[in-house]
Amino acid sequence: MSEEKTELTMYQIADQFIALANQLSQQENDIGKVGTAMRFASARYNAFEAAIKSTDLAAEKDNALEWFSNEFKAMLNENLDDHIAHPPVPAQQPADDSVQVFNGE
């Protein structure tokens, strides 16, 4: 009998990152710190991805920046709409007031 390799979907991989982020949020008691770390990690990994895929990153930098930014914006927009339709119930109050920035305060 041959073994089949089961590839993870993008969503399954994302769920693993989210599970780790949730674990770190509980450990650190700071959702803003974990969110910032995830954004930095994403930016760092995406820059690495662009460098690996590019034949001339210096020449393609602006196109890569636009492409990754548009991808992130579309994904963020979809997830914000989902949270508007189905608001999460926070297990804890944020440790900082960084969310206040979004309220214009």
In short:
The chain is mostly helical and 105 residues long.
Main sheet: strands, sense, barrel: none
**Residues in helices, as a percent range:** 55-70%
| Contiguous runs where pLDDT drops below 50 for at least 5 residues | none
Average the pLDDT over all residues and give the rounded result.
Answer: 89
Strand content: under 5%
Protein name: DUF3144 domain-containing protein
InterPro entries: DUF3144 (IPR021490)
Pfam families: DUF3144
Region (Disordered): 83-105
Features:
68% helix; mainly alpha
Word description of this protein:
This protein is mainly alpha-helical. Helix content is 68%, strand content 0%. The protein has 3 helices and no strands. The chain has helices spanning 10-28, 31-53, 57-85. The N and C termini lie far apart (63 Å). Residues 83-105 are annotated as: Disordered. It holds the Pfam family DUF3144. This is DUF3144 domain-containing protein.
